[in-house]
Specification:
The protein is of the alpha+beta class and 152 residues long. 32% of the residues lie in helices and 35% in strands. The longest helix has 15 residues. The relative contact order is 0.16.
Length: 152
């Protein structure tokens, strides 16, 4: 894994959303912004991008092209992740996907935000209601992958 970073203190925040979309479109695994104070106490942002090494050059090019930065830095990183699986859950608001993550003796489940958001909008109900109903229905399904120390 690689992390690519650039500090920016002279660019409108409006452009950061577009930048994130472009980075994800070109296979960034994750993108995040961290507020920082730079030279002369100017507020700025550090743009961080997690990627596979083969994607590094293209993502650096996007950072240089789409931001005001004059340079980027990169370093190696290690990422440990849980196994993941999506399951569809039938709810009164339609099918909602639930992401299960497991391994190392851990099990987590969470409804997909975009599915819940869309269902809440279509049915005119609070997002939290769709989320809660989905988790209740998921629990009734009693789906749990075999969790072992070797799943990761």
């Amino acid at each position: 894994m690689k992390i690519i970073e650039a500090n920016i203190d002279d660019m409108s925040g409006e452009f950061l959303g577009f930048l994130m979309e472009e980075l994800f479109k070109h296979n960034a695994l994750d993108v995040w912004y961290t507020p920082v104070y730079m030279k002369k106490n100017r507020p700025g942002v550090t743009v961080s991008v997690l990627c596979y090494p083969q994607e590094q050059e293209k993502l650096e090019e996007i950072l240089l092209k789409e931001t005001t930065t004059l340079g980027v830095r990169s370093y190696s990183a290690y990422r440990k992740k849980l196994e993941r699986q999506l399951v569809k859950v039938n709810t009164p608001y339609g099918d909602i996907r639930v992401k299960m993550a497991y391994g190392e003796g851990i099990f987590k489940a969470s409804p997909e935000y975009e599915d819940c958001r869309l269902a809440a909008t279509i049915h005119g109900v609070p997002l939290r209601e769709v989320y809660d109903v989905t988790m209740r229905e998921f629990s009734k399904m009693n789906i749990r992958p075999k969790v072992t120390k070797t799943n990761v």
